[in-house]
């Protein structure tokens, strides 16, 4: 089965000597093309570090990341930047839109950075896909939190990436808006075969994924396939109790 992302024995240590902090130890994981995976674990267990390394935003200390058959190990900064631009989408908790640009301009940005003149219909189509067909001319401050996150998702999708990484994508949203954004992510997987890897603290959010992978102290601590929120919450409680 085709893997969109492969992590092989990924380890990451921040700092050195007495100040060294080991955030990940020999984590190996595959993310199948067209699958939706949630990463969970107690605070400090290495979730964000895993996502940053997998997305080429940070370099692992050892191990390999392979995205769409390209090994990121040893790529120059320029080659890594190009790969990130073409093959990887990233969505942040805080949306990270450019406030002075309209929604359309924010979405078109990755194409412009790639030296392409984005077609109006191309950008409009992605905005329509995230349910914002009529908001293209608005700036972020004129949009709700949920709408801003939709723009950020459209911006991440405009290059048709092999994988969309999302770090707490609903963390700044209220419950009903979170549900809408999650339904959008689920639809991207079901209707367009998008691969999504999402970090979350919330069992209800994680239950929207096909699979939940648990991290504890930087190592893999099991997984649940087709999870329910209750099963995820029970597993998290057990992990938090055993960490005490
Ligand atoms: N830039 C850094 N320098 C030093 N240590 C770091 C750095 N980033 C993360 N760490 C440490 O690495 C470990 C893993 O952090 P990480 O942010 O990946 O965990 P997390 O599971 O995402 O946590 P949270 O749920 O609280 O966001 C923690 O001990 C953290 O303090």
From TrEMBL:
The keyword Nucleotide-binding applies. Keywords: ATP-binding, Nucleotide-binding, Transport. It holds the Pfam family ABC_tran. Residues 5-242 form the ABC transporter domain. Transmembrane segments: none annotated. It comes from the Bacteria. InterPro entries: AAA+_ATPase, ABC_transporter-like_ATP-bd, ABC_transporter-like_CS, ABC_transpr_LolD-like, MacB-like_ATP-bd, P-loop_NTPase. GO terms for cellular component: membrane protein complex; plasma membrane. GO terms for molecular function: ATP binding; ATP hydrolysis activity; transmembrane transporter activity. This is ABC transport system ATP-binding protein. It comes from Plantactinospora soyae.
